[in-house]
Amino acid sequence: MSWRPQYRSSKFRNVYGKAASREHCFDGIPITKNVHDNHFCAVNARFLAIVTESAGGGSFLVIPLEQTGRIEPNYPKVCGHQGNVLDIKWNPFIDNIIASCSEDTSVRIWEIPEGGLKRNMTEAVLELYGHSRRVGIVEWHPTTNNILLSAGYDYKVLIWNLDVGEPVKMIDCHTDVILCMSFNTDGSLLATTCKDKKLRVVEPRSGRVLQEASCKNHRVNRVVFLGSTKRLLTTGVSRWNTRQIALWDQEDLSMPLIEEEIDGLSGLLFPFYDADTHMLYLAGKGDGNIRYYEIGSEKPYLSYLMEFRSPAPQKGLGVMPKHGLDVSACEVFRFYKLITLKGLIEPISMIVPRRSETYQEDIYPMTPGTEPALTPDEWLSGVNRDPILMSLKEGYKRNSKIVFKAPVREKKSVVVNGIDLLENVPPRTENELLRMFFRQQDEIRRLKDELSQKDIRIRQLQLELKNFRNIPKNN
Question: Where would I find the WD repeats (predicted)?
Answer without folding.
Answer: 78-120, 128-170, 171-212
